[in-house]
Amino acid sequence: MASSLPVQALTDDALWARVAGQARCADSGLDPDQWYPVSIEPARARHEAAAAIAVCARCPVRAQCLELSLRHWDIGRHGVWGGLVATDRADLRRRRPAGHRGTAISAMIGPPSWPPVGSGLVRGGGVR
Ligand code: SF4
């Protein structure tokens, strides 16, 4: 069931429960390596992880996944989470205000359909 609370207001347990219950990557069929681009340069990394990013673009818990990666940077710094590669998440993390409560993740990543899958601009996914 959807919540009217912003993801920043949810507890870790609530976020994990939603992600674990609805993660599109859980049954994506992709090789695990596709979630871990080797390049650091963002455009190359997005290209390497395009298939994973496309899965994230259709995921109903993208914002929750991204929030978890930013909160738990020890694990959240690796691979694709919430439709973003590591370099993009690191940049997002740097731009977050201290305490990050005032910043809407959904405003940062856009609606799930943007950018369109296949456009080459799709960013991209955390629970495998
Ligand atoms: S990595 Fe995150 S956003 Fe991508 S499919 Fe998995 S749960 Fe959804």
Notes on the protein architecture:
The structure is a single chain. This protein is mainly alpha-helical. The chain is built from seven helices and no strands. It has one domain. The C terminus is likely disordered. Bound molecules: iron/sulfur cluster (SF4). Iron/sulfur cluster (SF4) binds next to helix 3 and helix 4.
Compact overview of the structure:
This protein has 128 residues and is mostly helical. It is built from seven helices and no strands. The two termini are 22 Å apart.
Overview features:
mainly alpha; binds iron/sulfur cluster
Largest sheet: none
**Mean pLDDT figure:** 82
Q: Helicity range of the residues?
A: 40-55%
Q: Please, how many helices?
A: 7
The tally of structural domains comes to 1
Taken in chain order, the helices and strands follow as HHHHHHH
User: What class, by secondary structure content?
Assistant: mainly alpha
**Ligands present:** iron/sulfur cluster
Distance between the termini: 22 Å
Please provide the count of β strands.
0
- What would the principal axes of the Cα set say about the shape? globular
What ranges have pLDDT less than 50 throughout 5 or more consecutive residues?
A: 110-126
- How much strand? under 5%
- Please compute the radius of gyration using only Cα atoms: 13 Å
Topology:
Blueprint: H1 12-22, H2 42-48, H3 50-57, H4 62-71, H5 73-76, H6 86-95, H7 105-109
